[in-house]
Design goal:
The structure holds 2 protein chains of 2 kinds.
Chain A: E1 11-13, H1 31-45, E2 52-56, H2 64-67, E3 71-74, H3 80-90, E4 95-101, H4 102-108, H5 110-119, E5 124-129, H6 159-162, H7 168-173, E6 178-185, H8 189-207, E7 212-218, H9 222-225, H10 229-243, E8 247-251, E9 254-255
Parallel strand pairs in A: 2-3, 2-4, 4-5, 5-7, 6-7
Antiparallel strand pairs in A: 6-8, 8-9
Chain B: E1 4-10, H1 20-24, E2 30-36, E3 42-46, H2 57-61, E4 67-73
Antiparallel strand pairs in B: 1-4, 2-3
The chains are: A alpha/beta, B mainly beta.
Chain lengths: 257, 75
């Protein structure tokens, strides 16, 4: 019964051809796969495959160039915005984006991030926030929540000693060069649709030369958080999104929060 | 009865068995298989085929993009 409706004319959803057939190395349930796909679906829908240049970071998504079927460049740890600046200035007709994690963008690359945003480079920055250093084994990141246990904070993050979780999206939103800043998640299908809309707007605005478009995506790291993928998504909705509140922070150059 | 009839095809060998599709399926159509794939993961399967309406929620959330969704109008 079900097999006879599986025909091309009944197709409603299929993985985009802008993702390669290579099996992703991410852990089961990792948000990176969903974010890669959302981004590539938007690029596909806008017909920008041959005009897009992505900058891959260091971190879990270091091999993003293996999965995205577009032109990509690998950058040194945290330096993706600097590389993106050069590429966009040399080829202003291209759509340039950086794809970075929280250890890359909010820790070692804070200087590059802030100055790139301050210069208002016409790029899209995709910031994946999973509140932990995933690739190196779950150490505390700048975005780790207060009291959250990690490999390097076994008694929970002590804000007296190491400070508060960094809300870098709110921080860069204050800069004049930033045209839009928003925070999204990928734990429900509706959230993925919202993220796609934000990415689409970011691509359009950055291509139109309006300034830096900053999209933060809260994602779960079930391996680092020591939870099952489904539990991790639930925990994220209950705890992470309480501190990192999703929604628009800056829209069309005006603060909305 | 559902107005639409849906069906999904799971790429069994690429599925990592995270179970997120099962947790978000609005009609509880999906479940995990009893057998495992080449990597040892239990993969997603339709356990209640008749309830699928082809909403594509599973396809949109799947981190590895292994789900293809089909939908046809029921006569």
């Amino acid at each position: 019964m079900s097999s006879n409706i599986c025909t091309p004319e009944n197709l409603v959803y299929k993985k985009t051809s802008l993702l390669t057939d290579k099996v992703m190395h991410y852990c089961p349930g990792c948000g990176h796969g969903t974010i890669h796909r959302a981004l590539m679906e938007v690029v596909d829908e806008m017909g920008l495959q041959d005009k897009t240049i992505g900058i891959a970071p260091v971190g879990c998504s270091v091999l993003a160039y293996d999965y995205m079927n577009i032109d990509m460049q690998e950058a040194a740890h945290g330096r993706a915005p600097a590389v993106a600046t050069a590429i966009k200035r040399l080829m202003p007709e291209k759509f340039v984006f950086t794809y970075q994690g929280d250890g890359d963008l909010a820790a070692i690359g804070t200087a590059e991030t802030i100055h790139c945003c301050n210069r208002g480079e016409n790029i899209l920055m995709v910031f994946v926030n999973n509140a932990i250093y995933g690739m190196t084994g779950g150490q505390m990141a700048p975005t780790t929540l207060e009291g959250m246990k990690t490999a390097t904070s076994p008694y929970g993050r002590d804000v007296e000693k190491v400070g508060w979780p960094l809300r870098i999206t709110e921080m860069v939103a204050q800069l004049n060069g930033v045209w839009s800043a928003s925070r999204h998640t990928v734990h429900t299908p509706a959230a993925v649709m919202k993220l796609k809309k934000a990415l689409k707007k970011g691509i359009e605005d950055s291509m139109a030369g309006k300034g830096t478009c900053f999209v933060e995506v809260c994602s779960s790291c079930n391996s680092g958080w020591k939870m099952s993928p489904v539990e991790a998504n639930k925990w994220m909705a209950e705890h992470v999104l309480e501190y990192f509140v999703p929604g628009d922070i800056k829209v069309d150059g005006k603060m909305v929060r | 009865m559902a107005k639409f009839k849906g069906s999904i095809v799971v790429d069994k060998e690429r599925c990592k068995g995270c179970g997120i599709c099962v947790s978000i399926c609005p009609n509880k159509t999906l479940g995990m298989s009893k057998e495992v794939n080449g990597k040892g993961y239990n993969f997603a399967v339709m356990v209640a085929e008749e309830t699928c309406v082809g909403c594509a929620s599973c396809g949109r959330i799947c981190p590895d993009g292994v789900i293809t969704v089909y939908r046809a109008k029921e006569d």
